[in-house]
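User: For a reading group we're discussing how well predicted structures match intuition. Take Peptidoglycan-binding protein. Before you show the prediction, I'll give you the sequence so everyone sees exactly what went in.
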Amino acid sequence: MAEEIVAREGGYVNDPDDPGGATKYGVTIHTMRRLGIDLDGDGSVTAEDVKRLSRAQAVEIFLQHYFLKPRIAELPEMLHATVFDMYVNAGANAVKILQRLLVEMGEKVAVDGAIGPQTVAAAARAAARAPGHIADAYGIARRNYYFAIADARPASRKYARSRAGGKGGWIKRAEEFISSRYHLTDVQFQRRVAAWG
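Assistant: Thanks. Here is the predicted 3D structure of Peptidoglycan-binding protein, as structure tokens, for the group to look at:
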């Protein structure tokens, strides 16, 4: 899963509209600073360190700090890939999306962005009730999260809608984890983003 995330994320970018800043393989400069990854040994973590990051290092960072440490591995297996991918993209918001979904499914769980015994147990119960649907429901909630960001922040719309006017990277990424029957058609997508002008 971590290898697939690195492949999806791609190489080095430093988009001024992206709050993540300098990023390579999906690992942001903020993550490298938080983890103290100074690859050139000059005593500070800069964009130059991000540029030096290897694929193997990125995979290890994701596995340790975005899958095992936040306890995504303890969730039902059908949620692993989508929650993991979203955690790389949105941090604790990935867990909050899941927790809100669990609340909507009738589970009593705190929406705090942390996976603990309560979230693990609630996810297991919800998955047992809807084994063929919980990953789709999460993916749809994830897609809606991206739309909400783009609604509120015009500079982020380029991540949700391509230059040609079709689905952008965020929406395509969310739909990679949703059954095709729940993908938005071109008409549905255009209707959803029509207010953006």
